[in-house]
Amino acid sequence: MGYPGWDSLGSVTRIHNWAEGLGIFFLAALVFCEVVSFKYGHRRDALAEAQQEAVQRDSDDRLSRIAKDVTPRKITEAQYATLREALKGFITKYRPHVTFYIYDEPETVSYGNRMVEIYGEAGAGQSHGSGTWRFGGHYPDEHGIKIADQPAPAAKALQQAFAAAGIETVLAPIQKHSNTRTVGPEEFLVEIWPK
User: Fold this and answer.
1) Is 161 contained in some domain?
2) Average pLDDT in the 96-110 region?
3) Which residues are CB-contacts of 14 (< 8 A; sequence separation ≥ 6)?
4) Contact status, residue 191 vs residue 104, Cβ threshold 8 Å
5) For the residues 89-99, what does the mean pLDDT come to?
6) Buried b (16+ CB within 10 A) or exposed e, 36-52
7) What is the tens place of the pLDDT at every residue in 140-172?
8) Are residues 51 and 138 in the same domain?
């Protein structure tokens, strides 16, 4: 059995040259594909590593936010002393009655009770003392510490007393709860919400 053009020198030469050229072409294509594969393999590894680092950073950020959310608020000794002194000035000048409304949730109650304690130590007596109310319910949009925005000059002074201790507050209209009384001209409400 013979191959096509097997017995003709011209045919054999043409087929040989064609097969050799095709072999060189496929060898060159193989080398090219290996080079491309090598380059893209390194690029794939670099992109995968960058993506993994981004995912890790995002995960770390989420974990730190979660940790911040579950870490209870604490009033440091320095904040305690600063707030006590700032509240002394506030109490002396405005002689207000401050009522603390504390959301009934363990972390918030602990934090709020500490503020009530500081307010008492700052010199709040019977005539301008403090009251405490605990309230429950679901208020998903309420967070942090709110101070009744009226009367304005004294409310700003109370906010500055908290700010001196590095405690952020917001002046705002206070929510009306079932146990909220009418606020008198020298009475302040301070709402303490979950963080």
Assistant:
1) yes
2) 81
3) 5
4) no
5) 80
6) eeeeeeeeeeeeeeeee
7) 567 788 887 666 788 888 899 999 999 998 888
8) no
| pLDDT exceeds 70 at position 110 | yes
Strands (E), 33-149: 97-103, 130-135, 145-148
∠ Cα 185 188 191 (to 5°): 150
pLDDT for position 23:
94
**Tell me, what DSSP letter sits at residue 104?**
S
- Among the candidates 36, 71, 106, a domain finishes at 71
pLDDT at 129: 45
Whole-model pTM: value is: 0.57
DSSP-derived pairing of the beta strands 97-103 and 145-148: unpaired
- Residue 2 in any domain: the answer is no
| Phi and psi torsions of 51, nearest 5° | -65, -40
Distance in angstroms (rounded) separating the CA atoms of residues 189 and 100 = 6
Q: Does one domain contain both 101 and 36? A: no
State how far the alpha carbon of 121 is from the alpha carbons of 50, 163, 169, 186, in Å. 55, 18, 20, 20
User: Residue 178: is its pLDDT beyond 80?
Assistant: no
CA–CA dist 27, 96 (Å, integer): 92
- pLDDT higher for 132 or 183? 132
Q: If you search the block for the tokens 């080398």, which residue do you land on?
A: 31
